Amino acid sequence: MSKKIIVANWKMNPKTLRDAEALLRAYRARYSAFKKVEAVICPPAVYISPLHKAVRALGARMGAQDVSCFEGGTHTGELSAAMLKSVGAAYVIIGHSERRKMGETDDVINQKILQALKSGLIPIVAVGESEKNEDADRILDMQIKAALRGISISDVRNILFVYEPRWAISRGPQDTRGLSDAPEHAIEKMIYIRRMLARLYGASVAQKTRVLYGGSVRSGIVAAFVKKGFGFNGVLVGGASLRVFEFIKLITAAADA
Ligand code: PGA
Fold this sequence. Notes:
Layout: E1 5-9, H1 17-28, H2 31-35, E2 38-42, H3 48-57, E3 61-64, H4 81-86, E4 91-94, H5 97-100, H6 106-119, E5 122-127, H7 136-147, H8 153-156, E6 160-163, H9 183-201, H10 203-208, E7 210-214, H11 222-226, E8 234-237, H12 244-256
Parallel strand pairs: 1-2, 1-8, 2-3, 3-4, 4-5, 5-6, 6-7, 7-8
Helix pairs in contact: 1-3, 6-7, 7-9
Bound molecules: 2-phosphoglycolic acid.
Residues 9, 169-170, 214-217, 236-240 line the site of 2-phosphoglycolic acid.
């Protein structure tokens, strides 16, 4: 049984590099939990280089939260896949709903995935509906088909998908409203994603591709999403990854599920 994947999306936190270093030191003090999972830490891009060693020492991999859709050139403020890779990123989150909300289109997301693959970054592609009453299958259909345009069968195997409905995302570490999707519903969507992959690339790809869940994941509920047999391969964690004890409990619960 392969290890569960736990992606920590720190978003625009912590406030300073010093705080980020302290957060990693606190993770490090509970090092043994990290050995039980495949952890990917995604800090703000400016912290990637200074934190790279500490993330490695944890036995985790480094991820970025976004990447440019351009390869290089006259694009002020953009960070290319090759740049992120050169400072230590191995993964990159693409198509997060907080970025889609800022106007990122399916087309741009597709370009970003292509750039990431070209530079050897592993794309973590987030898909999901915005509102609870929306037709999730129709939206997944559109987002996945667009995201995978021009992507070969050998490349698609490297992509991680995250089913993350926007309505289930927390407002941060202190948000305990319990907004997460119901595990049964989320697992239905995972099956739908695999069915789409089967149609587009064949049954073997659909079976082997790793699909994660994201949206208000906390230690008390994570096991229901990653349970043995028919669960997700892991989770994408936002707010809870900033609370050390909670995050360690979450990792342990996921590893034991
Ligand atoms: P959350 O965020 O766990 O705080 O809901 C997840 C995400 O948006 O990546």
